[in-house]
Amino acid sequence: MQVGTWPERRAALEKFQGALQEKFPEMDYNVFVFGSFVRDDFQDGKSDIDMIVYCEDMLKRMEIAEFCSEYFKRRQLEADVLEYYYMEDAYTYAVGILNSIQMTEYYPKKLRNELYVITRRYARYLEGQRRKLKYMRWDYTMWKRRKEENNHGGDAGRTMKNQALKLLESYDRYIKCDDERMKDDLLEAMSSRINHIAQAFCDIMAFIEISERNSAYEESWGYYARQYLKREIPKTEESKQAADFLRRRNDIVHDYFNIDRLNRDVLKAVANFGQGFLEMTEDLKEYCYEKFPEFQMEQNISKMKKTARR
C-alpha cells in the first residue's frame, strides 16, 4: 500500500471505506481515523494509522475492530485500533474523534453528548497541567537564578549528573507504584528532570562551542544535540539515543496541547535508554576535563554566553 503522500493516503482511505461499508452495510457504527495518517507529519515506514471504532453493539464493535486491524495488516500497515467506551476522562477518544475523518455518517446525539462531557473535563485537565508546568518553570527559573552568579562548568556537569540519577530514581519509583495520582506526579517529575538535564547539557555544549570556535551562543536544545552527535565525544548507543531525544524534544515547554503525549514519550525514553542520560553526562565531563582544564572550576559559563551574544 502506497501511503507516502496525502493523495495516496486519501485514496487508501476511500478503498478502506468501501470495503468497510460492504462488510458492514447496516450503518449503526462509525470508524474515526485520526492521528498522523490524516496530517502532514505522517512518516512513511514509521507512522501507523490510528482509528476509533464506535458502535453500541459490543459484539459488532469487536468484529469491526478486528476487520479494521486485519485489513491494514494484510496491506503491511500497522493499525492502532481503539474501541470506544464512554469514560469521562477518556481524553484520547475526544481528541481523536474531534480531529478525525469519518468512515460513515453515523454520529448519534448520545455520542455528541458524551464527547461534550469528555471535552469539558479535558479542558479542565489541561488547565491543571498548564498550572503544573508554570510552577515547574518558576521553580527552575528560581533555581537557575541562584546558580547564575557562580555558574561554572563543574556546576553544570554536577547538575546534569544529579538530575540524570534522580530521573532514573523517579522511573524506578514509577514502575513500582500502584497509585495513579502518584504515578502522574512522578511522570511530571521525570519531565522536569529532562528539562533540567537539557538546560545543563546546553550550557556544557555552549562552553565547548565557544571555547573551540568562539561561536555565538545559540538558544536551541536541538542545535546542541546535533553538535554533540557530530563531535568526537565518546558515546554509547544509549547516550546517542538520549541526545537524539533531546533534539526531538526541542522547545517542549511551549507545547501545552501535547503534554500527555510528551510525558508518555519521556516514560518510553527512560524505559528504553534512560541510562544514556547518565552516560552522556559522564562522557561530556571526561571530554571537557581532558580538553579544557578551566571547565571544572574557573570558567563562568554564564559570562561566556553573555559575551558570545554581543
From TrEMBL:
Pfam family, one: NTP_transf_2
Annotated ranges, domain Polymerase nucleotidyl transferase: 13-90
InterPro entries linked to this entry: NT_sf (IPR043519), Polymerase_NTP_transf_dom (IPR002934)
The organism's place on the tree of life at top rank: Bacteria
A molecular function (GO) term: nucleotidyltransferase activity
Protein name, entry field: Nucleotidyltransferase domain-containing protein
Source taxonomy: Bacteria, Bacillati, Bacillota, Clostridia, Lachnospirales
